[in-house]
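Exercise (ungraded).
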Amino acid sequence: MISDQQRMLTRAAREVIDGQIVNLGIGLPTRLFHYLPDDMDVLVHSENGVLGCRLLDSGEQPDIDMIDSGGTYITTRAGASVFDSATSFAMIRRSRVDLTFMGAFEVDQQGNLANWKIPGKFSPGIGGAMELAQKVARLVVLCSHNDKHGNPKILSRCQLPLTASRCVSRIITEKAVMDVTPEGLDVVEIAEGLSVEALREATDATLLIDESRLGRF
Amino acid sequence: MISDQQRMLTRAAREVIDGQIVNLGIGLPTRLFHYLPDDMDVLVHSENGVLGCRLLDSGEQPDIDMIDSGGTYITTRAGASVFDSATSFAMIRRSRVDLTFMGAFEVDQQGNLANWKIPGKFSPGIGGAMELAQKVARLVVLCSHNDKHGNPKILSRCQLPLTASRCVSRIITEKAVMDVTPEGLDVVEIAEGLSVEALREATDATLLIDESRLGRF
Amino acid sequence: MTLLNQKVCDIEAAIADIPDGATIMVGGFGSPGTPFALLDALLASGQRDLTLIKNDANEPSIGIGKLIEAGRVTHLITSHLGLNRFAIEAMNNGTLKVSFHPQGLLAEKIRCAGVGHGGFLTDIGQGTEIAEARRSIDVDGVTWGIEAALQADVALVHAERADRYGNLIYRATASNFNPLMAMAADRVIAQTYRIDEPGDLPIDAIHTPCAFVSQVVQVDRASSQQGVRPHDL
Amino acid sequence: MTLLNQKVCDIEAAIADIPDGATIMVGGFGSPGTPFALLDALLASGQRDLTLIKNDANEPSIGIGKLIEAGRVTHLITSHLGLNRFAIEAMNNGTLKVSFHPQGLLAEKIRCAGVGHGGFLTDIGQGTEIAEARRSIDVDGVTWGIEAALQADVALVHAERADRYGNLIYRATASNFNPLMAMAADRVIAQTYRIDEPGDLPIDAIHTPCAFVSQVVQVDRASSQQGVRPHDL
């Protein structure tokens, strides 16, 4: 049986269109590397200065000058390029990265995202998250539906300091695939076997659910 | 017998210190290429994006992708690099070009320089002159002492629109070598055979002349 | 943005949907780096009322000189027209509006748009007529002139070599404004002598990563010969 | 500036005259591009009360981590400390002042000093606490945040290869902040594995032209091994 994470990653990989430039946030999104088909013309951008990352094959020796922004040794695929940090963020700020996946502490129905700071508890710095969140053409949040205490992370309004406002297009959790709309979060898919009531209970945001067209994943 | 221009250029070449980065303005200063000794570690910067220009040897075929900022086909010497226009002007604005030679319509005893525009008569644009004049570490003006009507170009105050203010260190004409000082133009050398009176007559600025230490060139 | 696998196209298709009145950046400093073939296609395609952004106006009857002489350019944003007497004439008789910027500031205004900033603060031109035309601001007791980013609808750039994803390599002094303009326009059309497969260009040698480039067009090396002038000096 | 023919020197001489209290930029994103040998020399040389500017704090007990743990750093200007728990601890217990900037803005603030501008206008962080800390300005009806240029007394950079004039070539993701910092400090000290004669580096391959570099120091390739970590993911 596949895990929730595997199911989320399999679903998330379907967001990627052949020919796109994609950035994978640190944590769970980085694992999407394993889910992208090799035969697609997709380049993975990493903000430390590389476009066209791929994972090392098993047994392939790491190059100590070649990491991604999370510090993992990577290598490059055909069509890759390397560049300095200014060029890397120019790409981001000019929305030349088509799609990014990011984790979240909180995400809300306005599309606001909080994923960098928990005042008094966690503040290691913003890194590249703010620019990615604000400027990448399409931002898909990939996170657990609830925190480890069971509290909803999908909210009507974020409480934590924002990474960027009104930046999220879609949210994928183990429970649902939801799109940010002016009226609320439009639930386009729900986890196999999960009831609409259970989803509503686990969520602290306005959910728009039309059961007649609700997909399962 | 050598011409006035040859004498000026020979004198100007002595301004260059081994190990410097030098920019040669369009016109007469460009001819300094011919006067720089080959055995010096000197790199000539051209603002279109090359550091380490040299003239083509006679019979050497031009490369259509390799010009200097005046449009002349050039080539490069050992230690050269090429770069984009932003990098080229970063070098200039950061005063990483040690020395530039420029022509002048007018130059005055405050070190103000006018060499880009004659309102109503000549205004083809500023090009790179403003940034070079304002920011290169040392600016030596290389120009005729008087215009073609015999009017002084060395003035107490420029009348034409300025290229940059208080930017000139030294002026070399066919008549004299003069340094800009708070008290006036300090004449350090005078042309062989020229009288101090003739120099004063040809000049419309305060000249400081101490005949006991006055060099000839 | 254009998908990576859909960038190679023919020159007429690349130019055809540029509208009348477009603002177009054109690479090149003098002849090197000028996208002569794209400019010839633009001339043939017929767009009017263009605003061009280029370091210079090329020389008479080549490059953007052809477009200016054909009356297709309303406004030229540039640094220097010294080598094109027809452009100076058009400026002087009022048929061509010309906006001049110091060369390095022009480069930075373009780069500024290319990296997604709104403008930058400079001390270049303080005390000259350049500064009189712009707004200034005091920061920590220093007065800076504000230069706004300069954007365009389209950039036409020239590269020595490319791959079909749009990675670009420039050569020698044909680089100049090309890498800056290749970041700064909504749509970036690159002409090149050779289009390779992804992976054929060394990763450390790529000057403009493909992310910035919308379309890649292969042109004949002979198209650049219109810029060749007698060897001088 | 340093004359072209006087740039090669030994590592102790390069570091020795950095004063206490200096502001020092340090290249590198994580380990790649971090000038480990120069940092070790700085540690040995004894300067105190340093302000460091680096993307991150390396990892515990390597690179600038050593300087932080030795109590030699008063202020760190950075983007992210995620991989160095000792640096986070020092920040939390108040022994290290930390100023955070979004990574791309940090890069641009450095680059801004490197090209001689005073600052730039950005919309990054508008609507977040980043924007509350800075001044803003309206230009043509759009509100922009003003980010000031970030300068330093010294930059320590790492290059794969150099020549004795100071031309630099970076490699792979060891480029990162190095070319930006190599423009932005009053004095730029580059460490490299190999110093060639002028003319030995291909002119199109040079990333940082020698004009920006003050001193070049040859270091052993093994000096970078301190940044090697077990292969993860």
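Further reading is listed at the end of the chapter. For now, observe: The longest helix of chain C spans residues 103-114. The domain at 4-123+139-232 of chain C is CATH 3.40.1080.10 (Glutaconate Coenzyme A-transferase).
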